[in-house]
Design a protein that fits this description.
108 residues, mainly alpha, 6 helices
């Protein structure tokens, strides 16, 4: 699914400067694209409330897993581990979006 994020190439450069692997950079961009597609424009989320409402929806705890609570976000997460798949998938998406919002903060 191709859904570019605002200033994607600058974000790629920013991530490379963070001394992370090439694979981590690409995974972060891919995850941000996915969130951008399913939850709406990341840049707009950032300008609305610094992304706090989106990050709240991308929070899924082990307690949520134990209680079999559905996630608050709209993103499909595949996996064979039921709610644990949602836990790990949501955590990876949230981490990527946090990196993106950190990148946007340094542009302010």
């Amino acid at each position: 699914m191709w859904n570019p994020i605002y200033d994607e190439e600058a974000f790629r450069s920013y991530m490379k400067k963070q001394a992370v692997s090439k694979e981590h950079v690409q995974n972060s961009i891919s995850r941000c694209r996915k969130v951008n597609y399913w939850e709406g424009n990341l840049y707009q989320h950032y300008t609305n409330d610094r992304g706090s409402s989106l990050l709240d929806r991308l929070t899924y705890t082990k307690d949520d897993v134990e209680r079999c609570i559905e996630s608050k976000h709209n993103l499909p997460i595949d996996g064979n581990n039921g709610y644990m798949s949602i836990y790990y998938g949501t955590a990876s998406l949230r981490n990527a979006v946090q990196h993106y919002f950190e990148f946007l903060r340094q542009l302010d």
